[in-house]
Amino acid sequence: MLVLANEREKAQRDVLTYAAWGDGLTPQGYLTREMRLRRTIYARRGMHTWLWTDKSGGILSSCETYRMASNHKGKPGHVYGIASVFTEEKLRGQGHAARLLEKLLEHLPRLDAQAQAAILYSEIGENFYLKSGFSKIVCEDWIWDAKDQALEQGNLELLDESQVHQALPQKPAGALQVFPTSEQIDWQLERERIYSLQLGRVRPSIHGARNKEGRAIWRAQFRTNELGILALEAETFEAAAMLIECARAVAARAGLKTVRWWKTPLAFDLTPPDEVRVEMREDRDLPMIRPIKKDIAPEDWQTVYRALWV
Question: N or C: which end of the chain has fewer CB within 10 A?
Fold first, then answer.
């Protein structure tokens, strides 16, 4: 059976999933992280924990879903991010996770008539999810070293965490557009707050920047010691360059080693500068999509913002 987890069952799954996703945290620190993230507005409004159980109610596998605002060729709807697919080691190899996904994907359009697609970010490559009907989106990361330089780049307006909603992207490319919301950005920043407290790291004071030609939002990822650009949108090369240089300065001031941008389409062609390292994503945060509406094709989703990651 596919059922929703109650609060007690969620806490029990947290204990089990620490080994998989608690890297860098103590067991209690991981439990605190999960509890705090579930208390965010984003999670309270659109997150569910699903269980695949046997006839006696024993839990065989679990996952989470996060509802996101989307638009396909002018028609508003929802995309569901699938995360934390987990089966206990003693129960693996019996197809429980695959069955969970099968039933969940059957259930989502019954739950929500506006459901347009399911997305996820695989940490185990593509093969398992291909069997469940997902297609991978070819993506690359652009990585810069942090750079100790002036924060003020051109005419940029610097934004603290209370202002970053002013830099939300407005024109994602592609027929299927998934829009990061203020609540999603705060969920991302809550992760930064948690790791800052538990790892004893100082958070950046600036979390974004904008001008008339571009905007960007970022957060510190202390576990990997990098500044992750959550969303970047620019109409000119100059605007993109200023935003990146500002992010590099923020990273340096926070003691972070690099800046990582999940490259997304811009309003102009952009070739990698000499100082950029380009990495293709295959086994780490590999974006994948399974359309729910029949008129949606995987290639319709072109703009994969880091802010959408769950």
Answer: N
